[in-house]
Design goal:
The protein has 703 residues and is α/β, with parallel strands linked by helices. Helices cover 55% and strands 15% of the residues. The chain contains 20 helices and 19 strands. The chain is extended, with a radius of gyration of 42 Å.
């Protein structure tokens, strides 16, 4: 993919994800493809692949789905032989094609009722077709152990019958001679042996001249000579000839079968395609199960909303150690696209940066990612990283020189569709000079509209992130009481480096730490201390806030449960009341009709009685019509209410004021205000403070 180079692949350890996929794949085609896996060029392609994997994952998680086992051998080399003139398939090739046919038929049968629930996988299964045009001919020739059947041809049947008869005669002769020579003491302890697939007598060498037959060799000690009885020499020769005839007939039968399969070459091609694609999807699904991955919401533009995101490799490692992995959550959009992470060394800054980068590479490669399903992830045309202590020995470059060359590459490549990952931004040179240069680089990358995640200890970078409208700070939390990192990202303010606390945690003598503090500018020490205290207070506040939210959720859940119970009770009560009213109505009607019947029985004038019945039925009919009209009025009233609400909604969402040069505007998702200084088609050039940037008109609101 353009804009994602091998250095980024290595920095983010994407090659380890490739290696896992190679292990999970069955066939060599998928294994080779996974070894070269890179993010895709187009959002649509990745979207389709991700939906395929999600459908497969849903099937895997479905109880009793009965999905066919994807155990197969590829038929690629068999296809090559089918294309060659006068070349037939070997028996193992026929077996491979046969098994592929069975498996593809199983897949077609499995997905036949799943067109709606698994549309992507259903469509893939339809790239082949259900048929027994290969299965039936093979079943006619081969048995369940894939041996050629006796009745595969009339000639083979005769040959095997003759072999059976001759072999029985050989065995009868041999058994009789064993008894004869054993009784005379001519045979060794084992009596007989097998040599060149023939039964031979184990004759004591001193008696070999007493046994008629051909000597075929002897034991290492020379005490035993192996003799083929004379009576069986001719018979064994005939068996050898029959064996040769049998093999020729089998070859002819398999060649005939191969020609039958050759007529189905297009079908075999479809098997290769479908099975390798399912192998690919299955491996991706198995990886998702292994790493507990989900499909986030997908956005075809730069965007990141990670909820409970894990670094997959760290999570696996911690699982083996029984250690909890701290998930991270963050939002990066057009209102906040440059994230600056600060905090203590070994506090999780780099792993957070790598988590963001690796998950984005995985997603754009068609892989599900270890995040909460409520996450939403966008699409970047370029993902570039500068992580770790990289040196170019070949070009004799120091770490700093290498990073400067890498930065020049970033400045050339960065645009509004880029995601930049910069670890320990600006390090490798004099702190003051390097920090100043890093600040200039930061501003330039910001002006290009790029998205970025930057880790740093430089105060000027933290300050710059606070000044810029579309940049923001975050810090890795640190427990000042236990002097241990919490590995948790906190959005909204820069973090202290906890230089002296980390030194103390690693066993540096206190007197050395105090001496170092004494050599620093007093104000800087106080500022760092203040940041640390604020960070600790914020962490405590967030913990308390989280506890309160949890309590509120519990209370709300209880309240919702009570409301639902009350609603169900009221519904049951209303239903019961309606049932009682209906029963009373039926009862009254029944009583009335009973009176009519009694009157009729007592001999009243029938005409008068019929008039009363008609009058009663008319009244009942009128009641029913009134009830229907009341229901219609209620439905019309509800429809009018919905229409009124829709008109109100449209009124509220009326067309925005037009954006003009000089307009004061803000982004839809931000309160940061700026002034429009130029209009360019569907975009406006807006000055936010001392920085100007291009923004789509549809994203601006005139204030």
């Amino acid at each position: 993919m353009p804009g994602i180079d091998e250095q980024t692949i290595q920095d983010l350890e994407f090659h380890r994800i490739r290696e896992m996929l190679v292990e999970l794949a069955v066939g060599p085609t998928s294994q080779k493809n996974f070894g070269l896996l890179t993010p895709m060029n187009r959002f649509r392609s990745a979207h389709v692949r991700l939906e395929e994997v999600k459908e497969f994952l849903d099937i895997r998680n479905e109880q009793g789905a009965g999905f066919p086992r994807l155990e197969f051998e590829e038929v690629q080399k068999d296809l090559k032989r089918l294309k060659m003139k006068n070349a037939s398939l070997f028996l193992e090739g026929i077996i491979r094609v046969y098994r592929a046919s069975l498996l593809c038929n199983e897949l077609l049968q499995f997905f036949k009722p799943r067109k709606e629930s698994s549309p992507r996988l259903y469509a893939l299964s339809q790239e082949t077709w259900y048929t027994k045009d290969i299965i039936k001919p093979v079943d006619k020739v081969l048995d369940k152990r894939f041996k050629v059947k006796d009745d595969a041809s009339e000639r083979l049947m005769k040959i095997r019958q003759e072999v059976k008869r001759k072999r029985a005669q050989v065995n009868r002769n041999f058994d009789r001679l064993v008894k004869k020579y054993a009784a005379r003491g001519f045979l060794g302890e084992s009596l007989e042996s097998f040599l060149n697939e023939r039964r031979v007598l184990s004759v004591v060498s001193s008696h070999k001249r007493s046994v008629a037959g051909s000597s075929l060799g002897g034991s290492r000690s020379g005490q035993v000579t192996y003799v083929e009885p004379q009576e069986n020499v001719a018979l064994n020769f005939e068996l050898d000839q029959l064996g040769h005839d049998e093999q020729k007939e089998i070859e002819r039968i398999l060649q005939e079968l191969s020609e039958t399969i050759r007529e189905q070459t297009e079908l075999v091609k479809s098997y290769q395609k479908v099975l390798t694609r399912f192998d690919d999807i299955n491996a991706r699904c198995r990886l998702a199960l292994k790493l507990q991955c989900e499909l986030p919401g997908l956005v075809d533009e730069p965007y990141l909303e990670l909820v409970q995101a894990y670094h997959p490799l760290l999570w696996l490692s911690n699982q083996e150690k029984g250690v909890k992995t701290e998930p991270q959550s963050l939002l990066m959009d057009e209102g906040g696209r440059m994230l600056v992470i600060s905090g203590p060394n070994a506090g999780g800054k780099s792993i957070t940066l790598k988590t963001i980068g690796l998950l984005q590479l995985m997603l754009q490669s068609g892989l599900l990612v270890p995040v909460d399903a409520n996450s939403r992830m966008g699409w970047f045309h370029k993902i570039l990283s500068d992580i770790g202590d990289n040196q170019s020995i070949e070009n004799q470059l120091s770490t700093y020189s290498y990073r400067l060359k890498r930065m020049k590459f970033f400045l050339d490549q960065a645009d509004e569709h880029s995601l930049l990952l910069l670890d320990e931004f600006g390090t490798g040179s004099d702190p003051e000079l390097g920090g100043a240069l890093a600040e200039v680089f930061f501003e330039r990358l910001y002006e290009k509209g790029a998205y970025g995640v930057i880790t740093t200890h430089y105060a000027n970078i933290k300050l710059k992130a606070a000044e810029l409208p579309f940049a923001f700070n975050a810090s890795m939390l640190f427990n000042t009481e236990t002097l241990e990192p919490r590995y948790k990202l906190s959005i909204g303010q820069p973090g202290s480096s906890f230089t002296f606390e980390v030194a103390q945690m690693n066993g540096i003598p206190k007197r050395l730490i105090e001496s170092a503090k004494g050599r620093l500018d007093h104000k800087k020490v106080e500022l760092d201390k203040l940041i640390a205290e604020l960070q600790q207070e914020k962490a405590e506040f967030e913990d308390e806030n989280q506890r309160m939210r949890k309590a509120q959720r519990s209370a709300k859940d209880a309240e919702d449960d009570m409301r639902q119970r009350q609603s169900r009770y009221e519904e049951r009560l209303q239903t019961q009341q309606k049932r009682i009213e209906r029963n009373n109505k039926y009862l009254n009607s029944g009583k009335k009709m009973h009176q009519f019947i009694d009157a009729y029985t007592l001999g009243r004038a029938n005409k008068e009685l019929l008039n009363e019945v008609k009058k009663f039925l008319t009244i009942e009919k009128t009641k029913l019509e009134e009830a229907r009209k009341l229901k219609d009025r209620k439905e019309k009233s509800a429809a009018k209410s919905r229409a009124r609400k829709e008109r109100e909604r449209r009124r509220k969402n009326k067309v925005k004021k037009p954006v003009k040069v000089g307009s004061t505007v803000r982004l839809e998702k931000s309160n940061q205000r700026g002034e429009v200084i130029e209009l360019k088609g569907s975009e406006a050039v807006v000055m936010f403070g001392s920085f100007k940037t291009k923004v789509g008109l549809e994203k601006l609101v005139v204030v």
